[in-house]
Amino acid sequence: MSDTVQTLEGWYALHDFRTINWASWKYVSVEERGKALQELLLFLEQWHVVEINKQGSSAVYSIVGQKADLAFMHLRESLEQLNELETAFNKTTFAQHTIPAYSYVSVVELSNYMTKPGVDPMDDPDIVARLKPTLPKNNHICFYPMNKRRDGADNWYMLSMDERRAMMRSHGMIGRSYAGRVKQIITGSVGLDDWEWGVTLFADDPLTFKKLVYEMRFDRVSAQYGDFGDFYVGNILNLSKLQAMLEV
Ligand code: 76R
């Protein structure tokens, strides 16, 4: 019997980070900026319709710091749909005033560390809903990619299922103590992108990110086996906030 953990997959995810080329955005005429903005708002409306119809979900953020200015997070049923979406967006006038900063491709993932043996998780409507989530519209997002370490004696993938399950239980207990203050979407990216998982956290108070991530640093699974990429933190944008941000 293999010790591989079983995973359940849901919607595919694209995290699309852009820097705004303010010089070109300011250079074009008021009319062209207006048209570009209308086109952008039309896209946001289309994404909203997809979300209402439960065929995916999207959210837009302004990123704090120099890593990017904007982040689009999209969940869709297939890689083809994500690809169509990004290509269509890239053809917009507004996108021509943006520079790609970073992107991440992954798929919403739940693992069976916590499921009871003999129970089919797909019978649980809660689990099915978590595989195809509507992105929470909390004030703030925090995204970072991560790996589980494979380094000499610290090799997560050489541990037994029981050892990993015990550590994931402790991890889950810390996570649950933040219930109501933070929501997490774990997306798996083994074979899809450069890291093994994308961690996306949503909270109304950004300090919750700091407290949670710091507390987890002391927990064994993160302390001994976690390797982390760059962190992106941002503020949610609705139509009027996006318009205000793009005002020049
Ligand atoms: O889904 C569950 O409630 C079961 C428990 C659980 C699992 C299996 C859980 C709970 N997570 C799981 C899996 Mn998580 N999580 C992270 C990070 O910064 C760090 O140190 C790590 C980044 C955070 C902040 C976080 C938060 N989790 C995973 C996995 C897959 C591992 C694998 O398969 O080997 C990763 C990479 C990961 C990373 N976790 C929770 C949280 C929070 C807040 C919870 C509670 C969620 C809830 O109860 O809804």
Automatic annotation (TrEMBL):
It is an enzyme of class 1 (oxidoreductase). Belongs to the ChdC family. Type 1 subfamily. This is Coproheme decarboxylase. Fe-coproporphyrin III acts as both substrate and redox cofactor. Keywords: Heme, Heme biosynthesis, Iron, Metal-binding, Oxidoreductase, Peroxidase. Transmembrane segments: none annotated. It comes from Paenibacillus psychroresistens. Pfam families: Chlor_dismutase. Pathway: Porphyrin-containing compound metabolism; protoheme biosynthesis. Involved in coproporphyrin-dependent heme b biosynthesis. Catalyzes the decarboxylation of Fe-coproporphyrin III (coproheme) to heme b (protoheme IX), the last step of the pathway. The reaction occurs in a stepwise manner with a three-propionate intermediate. Fe-coproporphyrin III binds at R130, Y144, P145, M146, N147, K148, H171, Q184, S222.
